[in-house]
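Anyone else keep sequences and C-alpha cells together like this?

Example one:
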Amino acid sequence: MFYCCGITEKGIMPHNEDALLVGRNVLTDGRLEHRLSAPFIAAVSDGVSGENAGELASRMCLEMVRDVTDYRKGELKAGLMEIHRSLAEYSEDDPDSRNMQTTLCGVAVTDERNVVAFNVGDSRLYRFRAGRIRQLSRDQSLVQLLYEEGSITQEERRTHVHRNIIFPAFGNVRTDPIIEVEEIEGGMEYGDVLLLCSDGLSDYLSAYDIQEVMELPKSLPKRLDMLVKEALLRGGTDNITVAAVVCEYDG
C-alpha cells in the first residue's frame, strides 16, 4: 500500500499551467490525498512558458498518461511517445494551441518494490530515504548541459539567465522529445518517499533545502505545504506543484 499526497497551485501567476496525476486523478488546482495499491502512476506536468496553451498541454498530457497500463520499460516509453505525438497532432490542428508543450516527470509503481521513472523536461523526481534526499531525474535543460561540461557551477545553475530553456518537450511539433525511462535502482523500501515537483519549487529550493523540511516531525501534507510556502517566500514567480509517494508496505 502507498500513501500519496500533493499540491498544485498558481502561486502569484494569473493561472496554473501545472498539473498533477495520482492514480486516476488529474488535478489542476488544489490538494489531494490517496492510499493506493500498485500498479499506479504518479506524475507532474508543467506547461512550457513561452508557448501557447500550457495549461491545456499539461492537463491533456496527464489525462492520457493515466490510461497507460503497460509499465514495462520499452512499452511504457512507446506509450509515452504516442502521447507526445497525439499532443503535437492536436496542436497542429488548433491555431490557439499551436506548438503547445509540457514537461512530464513521473513514476510507474509496478508493485510494492519496483518503480519505473520517466522524464522529459526539467520537472524533477527525488527520493527521500533514511533522512537523505537524492535527485533521481536528470534535467533536460541548457543549464544542465552547461553544468555537465563544466561551464557553470552548481550555484550558477539556479540563477543562470537561460535556466528556463529546456530541450524539446511533449507536444513539440518540430522535434520529438528524448523520453528517459529507467527502473529506479533499489526500488522502494518501507518508509521511502518519492517526491515529484515542477521547477516552480526546484528553482527556489535546493535539494538540501527540501531535505531539511522533509526531516521535520510533521505530517507529510504539512511538509509539502511548507515547501510551497518557502518557495513563494524566496521570490517564487511560477506555478508550484509537489507530490509525494510513500511506501507503507513492510514485508
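And example two:
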Amino acid sequence: MEFERIIPGSEIIERLFSLFPLIDEKGKGLIRNGTTVVPVAKGCYIYDENDSPMGFLCLMEGNAKVVKTGINGRGSIVRLVKPMGLLGYRALFAEENYRSAAIALDDSLIAIVNKEAFFEVMRSNADFSLHILKLIAGELGESHLRMVTLTQKYLRGRLADAILSLADIYGFAEDGKTIPVTLSRSDLAQLSSMTTSNAIRTFSSFISEGFVANVNKRIAVLDLEGLHKVSELG
C-alpha cells in the first residue's frame, strides 16, 4: 500500500518509546530516524492480504480491525487493535506477505518503523527482544481463547464473548456502560463468526433481555453479569 508519509513529531516518538523500554540511546536514535507516520482514513486499508510487510507497525491513534478472508469471500475479524497496539508483526518476523488485512475503524495514524532499524535494535538488545516476544505471546494466548469460543460455543455465547472482548479491549466511556468504539453489525458478525442476519437477530434478543442497548451506534452494556452467564453457558 502507498501512503502520504509524514515525519513523526517528538511527541509521537516518545509515545512509541513507551512501547519499547530498555532501549539505549543508540537504539532510540535508530528508531527515531527509521520511523515515519502515515494517516489512514476510516474504512481504508492499512495493509491488504498478500502485501509485503512495510516494517514494524504500531497504531498510534484510532482503532483498527484485522480481517481474514475465508470461503466464498466471507471475512472474519481475527482481532481488534486499539491505540498503541501492534499490527502485521507475524508476516514481518516470518518474512512472508500478509495473510490478513488491516482496516482502520476510525481516522488513524500508523507509525512504521523501518524493518532494518527495528531488527538491528533487536539483535543488539536481548531485553528489548524479550519484551517484544512477551507482547506477541500475550496476543497469541488471546487468539487461543478466541479459537475455543468460535469452535465450541453457540451463537449467543459467541456474541456475548465478542461484546465482553470489546469491553476488555476498550473499556467503558464515562457513563461506565458504553464501549467507546463504533462497529457495524457486519463487523460484529465477523467478530462473532456468524452471518450478519444472525448477529442482528441475536443482538436484538440481547437488547430485549436487557443485557445491552444501542447508544449512538455503540454498544452499552447494561447487565455485565448476565453477559458473563450467557458466555459460560456457551
